[in-house]
């Protein structure tokens, strides 16, 4: 079983990952939308 310190580090890593995901998904979606609009025109 993981010790308390390992769980704290894991929670911090997971929190950082989720924060990065919150920003990267919309940025990627906007980029894809722009590319699709350029190809369609």
From TrEMBL:
The chain crosses the membrane at residues 20-40. InterPro entries: Cyt-C_aa3_sf, Cyt_c_oxidase_su4_bac-aa3. SUPFAM superfamilies: Bacterial aa3 type cytochrome c oxidase subunit IV (SSF81469). Residues 2-39 form the Cytochrome c oxidase subunit IV bacterial aa3 type domain. Keywords: Membrane, Transmembrane, Transmembrane helix. This is Aa3-type cytochrome c oxidase subunit IV. It comes from Pelagerythrobacter marensis.
